[in-house]
């Protein structure tokens, strides 16, 4: 059963707020360092974490723990590198204004 007393609700709201602020700051730091767009990279890593969880449940029974861990790490590293390269291939299109 879910507890709905005021202390639990306040603590949950505080924990969610602090977590959100920490993630926003981490995203800003990633963007400032020039690695990639920080918030997009964090959203992407969340999606990849979900994918690796599904892969682990699908493949986990047939491979050992070590093999599954290496397999998931390779998938995560490849996807992160590809996402950074995709973001870095942005081309700047020069805008030419008509003279008046």
How many β strands by DSSP?
0
Sheet with most strands: none
β-sheet strand percentage? under 5%
- Rounded to the nearest angstrom, the radius of gyration is 21 Å
Helix count, per DSSP? 3
Helices and strands, in N-to-C order? HHH
Q: Compute the number of structural domains.
A: 1
Instruction: Report how far apart the termini are.
Output: 70 Å
Give the overall silhouette.
flat
What is the percent of helical residues?
over 70%
Label the structural class.
mainly alpha
Unreliable stretches (pLDDT < 50, length at least 5) are none
How does this structure look, described?
The protein has 100 residues and is an all-alpha fold. The protein has one domain (6-88). It has helices at residues 6-32, 38-59, 65-88. The mean pLDDT is 82.
Describe the structure in brief.
The protein has 100 residues and is mostly helical. It contains three helices and no strands. It is 73% helix and 0% strand.
Main features:
single chain; 100 residues; mainly alpha; 3 helices; 0% strand
List the helices and strands and how they pair.
Elements: H1 6-32, H2 38-59, H3 65-88
């Amino acid at each position: 059963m879910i507890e709905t007393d005021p202390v639990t609700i306040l603590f949950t709201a505080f924990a969610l707020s602090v977590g959100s602020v920490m993630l926003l700051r981490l995203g800003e730091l990633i963007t400032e360092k020039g690695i990639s767009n920080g918030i997009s990279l964090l959203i992407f890593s969340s999606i990849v974490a979900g994918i690796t969880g599904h892969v682990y449940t699908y493949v986990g029974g047939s491979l050992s723990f070590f093999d599954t861990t290496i397999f998931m790490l390779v998938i995560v590293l490849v996807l992160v590198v590809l996402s950074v390269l995709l973001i870095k291939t942005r081309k700047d299109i020069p805008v030419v204004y008509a003279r008046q």
